[in-house]
Amino acid sequence: MLIGDGFFQLTAQELSTVLRQGLTPVIILVHHDGYTVERGILGADASYNNIATWRYDRLVEAFDPQNLAITAKADTEDTLAAALNTARSNRDRLVFIEAVMERLDAPESLVKPGKAFAAADYHHALVS
Questions:
Q1: Which of these, 118, 98, 96, lies nearest to 37 by C-alpha position?
Q2: For the segment 78-107, what is each residue's pLDDT rounded down to a tens digit?
Q3: What's the half-sphere exposure (Cβ side, CA atoms, 13 Å) at 91?
Q4: pLDDT: which is higher, 72 or 35
Q5: How does pLDDT run across 9-31, given as a tens digit for each residue?
Q6: Cα 123–10–7 angle (5° rounding)?
Q7: What whole-number distance in Å separates Cα of residue 58 and Cα of residue 69?
Q8: Domains of the chain
Q9: DSSP sequence for the chain
Q10: By CB count within 10 A, which of 8, 9, 12, 96 is most buried?
């Protein structure tokens, strides 16, 4: 599962359900400090697109009193590769990877529709 940190903060309690049900997904949390999708539409530097900083690894611990999950933090390609290797070798456990990204780091497949939406919704192109 791939999820941004902004949306995750709306649904974090579901980690409890996943662990209670004994599910073993790999969850990759893309930590880019807020609502990157919204930043791509309007307000790239607006404070309303920022979110509170959480200790995501500790949140997993809070929902996992039996210590069944594995957490990893990746802020480089090498640490992400290592975290993914950990996930491959622990398919019987929930693996939670926090991938730290720059605020505006997003794939073109997200950036381009955001610009189009901003132009259509706000009747002008915000970014060329």
A1: 118
A2: 999 999 999 999 999 999 999 998 877 777
A3: 2
A4: 72
A5: 999 999 999 999 999 999 999 99
A6: 50
A7: 11
A8: 2-122 (3.40.50.970)
A9: -EEEHHHHHHHTTHHHHHHHTT---EEEEEESSB-HHHHHHS-TT-GGGB-----HHHHHHHH-TT---EEEEE-SHHHHHHHHHHHHT-TTS-EEEEEE--TT---HHHHHHHHHHHHHHHSS-S--
A10: 96
Instruction: Considering only residues 42 and 60, tell me which one the structure prediction assigns the higher pLDDT.
Output: 60
Query: Across the chain, what does the average pLDDT equal?
Result: 87
pLDDT digit string (tens) for 50-61?
A: 999 999 999 999
pLDDT of res. 124: 52
Q: Is the dihedral of CA 114, 117, 123, 128 positive or negative?
A: positive
Nearest Cα to Cα of residue 75 among 39, 30, 34: 30
CA-CA distance, 97 to 28, in Å (whole number)?
5
Starting at the edge strand found earlier in the chain, the sheet holding 70-74 runs: 2-4, 26-31, 95-100, 70-74
Residues in the chain: 128
Which amino acid belongs to residue 100?
V
